[in-house]
Each structure stands twice: as structure tokens, then as C-alpha cells.
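Session log. Operator J.P. requested a structure for one protein chain; no other inputs attached. Running the standard single-chain path with C-alpha cell output.
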Amino acid sequence: MPEKIYSVGELTQRIKNALESKIGSVWLEGELSNVSRPSSGHCYFTVKDETAQISAVLFRGARRQVRFEPVDGLRVRCLGDMTVYERQGRYQIIVRQMDEVGQGALQARFEALKEKLLKEGLFDQARKKPLPLLPLRVGIATSSTGAAIRDILNVTGRRFPNLHVVLAPVKVQGEGAAAEIAEAIDRLNAWPGGLDALIVGRGGGSLEDLQAFNEEPVARAIARSRLPVISAVGHEIDFTISDFVADLRAPTPSAAAELVIGRKEDFETLLRDTDRRLAHAGREWMSAIRHRFVQARDSYVFREPAHGVRQGAQRLDTAEMRMRNALLAHSQALARSVDDWVARLRHPLQLRRESARERICRLDSQLRAFNPLAVLNRGYSLATDAQGRILKNVDCLRIGDEVRVQLAKGAFHAAVQRTE
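Structure written below.
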């Protein structure tokens, strides 16, 4: 039989006592990571260096004495007591005092790249592309198993079920993640048939978890994208380099889905307003036409044949009813395309009309120049023999031949008496 058998709680308590008595209070220096702030007011985080990491907790009372906000990547020096969190069997340090030492490696890299891209103009508002009003095909670069894609599909399915979504599955953290994300952005830009917009992102996490979206290859891929890009990385408090370069930043992946497709009710309201404006314009046009008919009917010239005016008014009413039905049937299509088609057709029609007018003028001038009768108006005449052949030389005439002489106005016959 073993000398003593411990329960899990007993052994954990013994380890805790040994840790607290033999190590006790220590100063610890390292980089903050996985900072969490629950509603209790306490602050939980990890202190790490290149070789190891230790869990830490800063309780609410001690937190009030800290003159800065703990964030991922910040390098700190802590004074605290080593202990064991018995429920999870994890050793940790309870921080009583914490001072800021400087930025950690990740935070320093973040600030350096941010400054570099800012100077290059990649954050300029002027280069931001607007989102389409109602995209039909949207590309997404994110993990195929993460919460981000589920949240996006949930929103799109609820708001716009017939939206075509193209997922480019990528790693969103760890080695090679940045290269995969950049390659996916390029691939979605070249997608057959074309896409309307891109969403690039992932769910929340620590600074290390989000590091792929703070890498230069991803920033460059977003900057060269011909499609508008929405960056949706982490939670609302998280900011990455991708957020600054993208055309639009969404606080969460769900918010990105809402931004890219908008609300169905908003589009329905827009279409209803457009339908009302078209119907009003149609009624105004019909009213103007009817007024012209009324004026014609009441004029002196048309007072007698009033029956024809009444028939015209009846045809106008019929046309109005048909037009109203057509407006109701096609209002949605007209609302999307009428302005575009007017702008696209007006200019070529004007060019064709001016070109046709110039061509007709040239042809008219040519016809006038080649018209033989135009020569007669200047005092010339046209002589033909008995067979109607035009006479060009006196050698073909004999004494007594009959010729016909055509003048500008009229013609007469004559007989040849002599030739010279």
C-alpha cells in the first residue's frame, strides 16, 4: 500500500502552500497578452517573454492604483504574490503593483508598420472605395471553422437570403496565416464572373491571435484590391493595420455583414419612394397632355369636331391606365436602371443625331451639285436628237434634223438649217 493517497484538492493545496511559502512575493517583468476585463472590474492577463508565460490577475482594488490601461503588447514590471488557482490547478501571480516598462515586441512592430504605411498614403481617405448599394456576390476571407463565418452567414441569411457568398478559407493566426490571407484577397479579386465586395477578418483574440492582420503582406493585398474591402477583425475595441488600410472598418464580423448588404427594409423603402416618384411624374405628364387636349377642344378651330377630341381623351385615359399598370409591374426594375440608362443613352443618341444631320446636309449639297437642271437655271440649255440622245457635237447633225431644246422652264423643237 502507498504511504499516503492524496485527493486532488489535498495535493493542490499542498502545492499552493509550498509555492506561497517558498516563492511568495516577487517582481516579474514581461509582455502583457490575452488581456481580459470582465464586468466584475478585475483584469486577467498573461505575462510572457520569449521562453514562457505566467497567468496573472489584477483585482479591482489594486487596479485602481495602476495609472495606465493594461493592453496586449505592453511591457510591464509587476509586484505580486505567487499562488495556485485551485479550481483549474493553475499557478498564477496576484498582482498588487504594476508599472509600465515600454512597448512589447508586437506592439512595437505594429506602430512601426502603421507609421510606414501612413507615410505611403495607404490610410488616405481619398483612396477609399465606396461599397455598392446592393451587392449580389460577396467574397469572404476567413477561417471556415471560426465563429466569424457563422456570424456573417447568419446575418446575410436573415437579411438577404439570395446573396451569393464565396468563401476563401484561410488560417487566421499562426505561421503562414498572413500569406494565406493575402493570397486569398488576390484570388477573390480575380474570381470568375467577378465579385462586388470583400470581407476580410476573424473573431476576437489577443494581440498575438490578431497578428496576421497586422502584417505587411495583408495590408498590401488590401491596398491593391480593386474591390472594396471591409475589415472585420476582432471586437469593437480591437484595431489592426487591416482596419486602417481597408475601405471600411467593421467592429465585428456580424457588423461587416450588415454593412455590406444593408437592411432589406431600407431597400424596400427606397423602392417604394422611387415608385411613388415615378407614379407622380407619370400623372403630371398625363395631366399636361390632357390639358393640351382640353385647350385644343375648346379652341375655335376644333369646336365643331368635338367628337374627335372626346375620342382622343378616351384613348388618353386608356393609355394612362395601361401606363399605371406598367409602372406597378416594373417599378422595381425602373428604380434601379432608369437613371443609368438615361445617362448612357443620351450622349450616343445626340452624337448619332448630329452625325446624321451632317451627313444629310452633305448628301443634299452633293445632289444639288450634280442636278443637271441646276445648270439650266444659270441660262444654259440641253439639246437632244429625235431619239432623246444628248447632243454634244455638231458633227452628228445634218441639215433638216429635228432637235429638242430643254430650257430651265419649258422646252421647244427646232430644225437644223446649217452647222458650223
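Operator note: Residues 265-368 form one domain.
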